[in-house]
Design brief:
Shape: elongated
Strand content: 35-45%
Structural class: alpha+beta
Largest sheet: 4 strands, antiparallel
Number of strands: 11
Length: about 200
């Protein structure tokens, strides 16, 4: 009788440990993509979820963000199993762009996006944030390169609208909705600024 009680107790403890190990709480604004034995199983919805321990695993994604370290924006890549579904801002550092009249300017932009389809965000690109950033930068270079310097300052909204169209096209494939693209700052070389004043 004592042996049966010990076996029942051990079995109960094992079942309880498996249930606790399989419990996953997902916050309201988060998403977690679950893989079963290496292939997509499901996307967990907010609240209490249960997965099969040791068989189901959260799929981590690489996320590249910028942190201000010593006055410079330094890219930091992290692996995260949970990613936000709220609107996120990607403030990428200024980059040098050449206008149609061969003036080199530094353009700083910000992009607002939201993950709509977590499965596509995980499987359609290796590093979602980096993919969005590089597409935004190359599209910005292309649009600014078509304009002359004096038109550039007047055409911010036009550039923002064109960038949003390009970003929306790629974003749909990646499960992302780009809500806004903004040019924050346009810095021209000091000698060009002096010449414009004169």
């Amino acid at each position: 009788m004592d042996m049966m009680l010990v076996i029942a107790l051990v079995f109960t403890v094992l079942v309880l440990a498996l249930v606790i190990k399989g419990l996953m709480i997902v916050q309201q604004s988060e998403a977690v993509v679950i893989e079963r034995l290496g292939s997509y199983q499901k996307t967990l919805s907010p609240g209490i979820n249960w997965i099969i321990p040791f068989v189901d695993k959260p799929r981590s994604i690489k996320v590249r963000r910028y942190q201000a370290i010593g006055g410079e924006n330094v890219p930091v890549v992290q692996e995260e199993a949970r990613f936000g579904r709220r609107e996120t801002v990607l403030d990428f550092p200024g980059q040098s762009v050449i206008t149609a009249d061969n003036v080199s300017v530094t353009v700083n932009g910000a992009l607002y996006f939201q993950v709509i389809d977590p499965e596509r965000a995980v499987y359609q690109t290796e590093n979602l944030i980096q993919a969005i950033e590089i597409l935004a930068k190359t599209s910005l270079r292309s649009e600014v390169g078509k304009m002359e310097l004096d038109k550039l300052f007047e055409a911010r909204q036009e550039i923002n609208d064109k960038l949003q169209l390009v970003m929306d096209g790629a974003g749909n494939k990646w499960g992302v909705k780009v809500t806004r693209v903004e040019i924050q700052d346009i810095v021209i070389p000091a000698e060009v600024e002096d010449a414009m004043r004169k």
